[in-house]
Design goal:
Elements lengths: L18 H5 L32 H11 L10 E11 L5 E8 L3 H5 L5 H5 L4 H9 E4 L7 H5 L3 H16 L4 E5 L6 E5 L9
């Protein structure tokens, strides 16, 4: 007879404690917690039959994740619309893109780049090339794409980067110059004539 799974030693606690109880199994010899009782599910009876108790702890561990509300989820990617747009070699204009939040690694790695060491102003080009995840229909976005953008688009992306990494959103509080009424504007970019 061949063994397919190792049995826990006498002093070891079962890995799936509580799983069988939650599923309504009493175990062998009595309910869980009583002498002779077991909190584990009975072994599978058929050859090749998966032991369902092995997946139950994973389900129980992920249950709190299901109960999360939308406000608990950290937003890590932000869409934007470039004022002018990047023009590729074929003449296609790419305006809509996505930028992700920066990590410490994103900010440290460019410091080793020779271009940045020679000209510190190049830091933002290399950094933006790391955090822009999508731009139009381009298959990849890198620092070569960013360095060929119009200056107004580069300035927009630098401001956008600061906004999402400092505030965690793309809204800015402003005040009307005529009536002094405060309101918020979306910095993610918009089409001309939209606010």
């Amino acid at each position: 007879m061949r063994r397919t799974a190792a049995r826990p030693s006498a002093g070891a606690a079962p890995a799936d404690t509580g799983t069988a109880v939650a599923a309504g199994h009493a175990g062998h010899g009595g309910p869980a917690g009583e002498p002779g009782g077991s909190a584990t599910a009975p072994p599978a009876t058929g050859a090749g039959t998966p032991d369902a108790s092995r997946t139950a702890p994973d389900v129980l561990r992920t249950a709190p994740d299901v109960l999360r509300t939308a406000s608990d989820v950290l937003r890590t990617e932000f869409p934007f619309h470039l004022p002018r747009g990047y023009v590729d070699e074929q003449g296609t204009v790419h305006r809509d893109g996505v930028m992700r939040l920066s990590t410490a690694r994103d900010e440290l790695i460019p410091l080793r780049d020779l271009r940045v060491q020679e000209n510190p102003a190049y830091l933002s080009v290399v950094l933006l090339g790391r955090v822009i995840t999508r731009l139009g229909t381009l298959t990849s976005v890198h620092d070569g794409v960013v360095e060929n953008m119009f200056a107004s688009d580069l300035a927009f992306l630098q401001d956008f980067y600061r906004q999402i990494n400092a505030e965690g959103h793309t809204r800015a509080a402003v005040r009307c110059p005529h009536c002094s009424e405060p309101f918020e504007v979306e910095l993610g970019g918009s089409r001309l004539g939209e606010s």
